[in-house]
């Protein structure tokens, strides 16, 4: 469960150079990115700390504008990076209706949508429910020998309460996208009798001595809070197999997960980390989504509203990229 704090946003890592060569070729393909819609039929409110304002109803308007732009740009697909509806829906028994409302908007999109699961999905639904919901887009997985071999290696005895939601797809040759389950190890959405629930709760209590396990107060490792999550060894082993295959076949890889608050970083290994601002915290006069254009030598994010543009140039001697 060793993830950074504030786990509510879509993120991207990409191994690239800091070169400044000009891209003159036409984009190979493009895709849309959006995070933290957190729709609810509620008046504006604030986050659990009472600091950040949240625009529950208006998030739907932002989504509508994003879909309109993506349809005009003819993107190949869209990454919905988690927290599609807000946890308040569960409190008011509005989860199913809220999800139907948002999915009706996504049905207007001409391109397929890949859905990531965040903590708010798990506030509203159990994992068993999510597996049978429109938010399970594993049917879009690349049905190659690679995926067949990897899937066959997963335990056939693994129940729905213990499984993880992760898959990969290939929008074109030499580019592979991987969606990870950032709440694989978590108490959220899992049956209390499951091994992963018990293991996650045990680890939380070891690392977090607060009565409220959502509180980071006095924590040395502030990621150990209940609204956070982590990866099981099974999922990491699966990821390693996909990346090994990608390395051998000189593929560029985009890894998609769930994190919060917009930011960008190029780490010491030449890997680009990108997170998006959340729709839920975006006032009506702005927006927060993006379109990423993929070229032979780089990816370029064209942001809307509070999402800034970002150029990410591939590192010449590496192929793996991480979102």
Q: How would you characterize this protein structure?
A:
The protein has 323 residues and is an alpha+beta fold. It has a single domain (11-313), classed as Purple Acid Phosphatase, chain A, domain 2. The chain is built from eight helices and 14 strands. It has helices at residues 59-73, 88-91, 95-106, 119-124, 127-131, 145-153, 195-207, 233-248; strands at 11-15, 29-34, 45-46, 53-54, 77-80, 113-115, 167-172, 175-179, 252-256, 263-266, 271-275, 288-294, 298-305, 310-313. It has a six-stranded mixed sheet, with helices on one face. The protein has a three-stranded antiparallel sheet with strand order 1-11-10, with no helix packed on it. A three-stranded mixed sheet has the order 7-8-9, with helices on one face. The radius of gyration is 19 Å and the shape is globular. The protein starts with 10 loop residues before the first strand and ends in a 10-residue tail after the last strand. Residues 31-261 form the Calcineurin-like phosphoesterase domain. This is Calcineurin-like phosphoesterase domain-containing protein. It holds the Pfam family Metallophos. InterPro entries: Calcineurin-like_PHP, Metallo-depent_PP-like.
Give a quick summary of the entry.
This protein has eight helices and 14 strands. The protein is of the alpha+beta class and 323 residues long.
- Order of helices and strands, N to C? EEEEHEHHEHHHEEHHEEEEEE
Can you count the beta strands?
14
Give the strand order, joined by hyphens, for the main sheet.
6-5-2-12-13-14
CATH homologous superfamily placement: Metallo-dependent phosphatases
Our estimate of the beta-strand percent is 15-25%
Distance between the termini: 19 Å
Fraction of residues in helices?
10-25%
**Class by alpha and beta content:** alpha+beta
Shape: globular
Radius of gyration over alpha carbons?
19 Å
Low-confidence stretches: 1-24, 318-323
- Total of helices: 8
**Quick one: biggest sheet?**
6 strands, mixed
Number of domains: 1
- CATH architecture assignment name: 4-Layer Sandwich
InterPro entries: Calcineurin-like_PHP (IPR004843), Metallo-depent_PP-like (IPR029052)
Protein name: Calcineurin-like phosphoesterase domain-containing protein
Pfam family, one: Metallophos
Organism: Phrynosoma platyrhinos
């Amino acid at each position: 469960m060793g993830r950074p704090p504030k786990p509510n946003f879509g993120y991207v890592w990409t191994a690239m150079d800091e070169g400044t060569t000009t891209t003159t070729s036409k984009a190979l393909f493009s895709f849309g990115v959006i995070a933290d819609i957190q729709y609810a039929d509620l008046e504006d409110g604030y986050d659990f700390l009472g600091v950040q304002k949240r625009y529950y109803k208006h998030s739907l308007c932002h989504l509508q504008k994003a879909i309109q732009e993506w349809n005009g740009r003819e993107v190949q697909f869209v990454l919905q990076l988690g927290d599609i509806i807000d946890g308040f829906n569960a409190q008011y028994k509005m989860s199913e209706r809220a999800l139907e409302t948002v999915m009706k908007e996504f049905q207007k999109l001409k391109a397929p949508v890949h859905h990531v699961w965040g903590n708010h999905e798990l506030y509203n639904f159990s994992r068993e429910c999510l597996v049978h919901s429109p938010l399970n887009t594993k049917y879009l997985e690349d049905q190659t020998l690679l995926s067949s071999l990897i899937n066959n290696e997963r335990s056939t005895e693994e129940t729905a309460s213990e499984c993880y939601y992760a898959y990969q797809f290939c929008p074109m040759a030499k580019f592979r996208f991987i969606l990870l389950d950032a709440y694989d190890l978590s108490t959220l959405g899992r049956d209390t009798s499951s091994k992963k629930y018990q293991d996650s709760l045990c680890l939380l209590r070891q690392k977090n001595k607060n009565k409220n396990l959502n509180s980071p107060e006095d924590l040395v490792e502030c990621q150990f809070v209940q609204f956070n999550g982590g990866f099981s060894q099974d999922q990491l082993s699966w990821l390693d197999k996909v990346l090994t295959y990608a390395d051998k076949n000189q593929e560029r890889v985009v890894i998609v997960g769930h994190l919060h608050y917009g930011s960008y970083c190029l780490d010491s290994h030449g890997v680009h980390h990108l997170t998006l601002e959340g729709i839920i915290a975006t006032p009506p006069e702005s927006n927060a989504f993006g379109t990423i254009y993929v070229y032979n030598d780089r990816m370029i994010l064209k942001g809307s509203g509070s999402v800034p543009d970002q150029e990410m140039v591939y590192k010449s001697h590496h192929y793996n990229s991480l979102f």
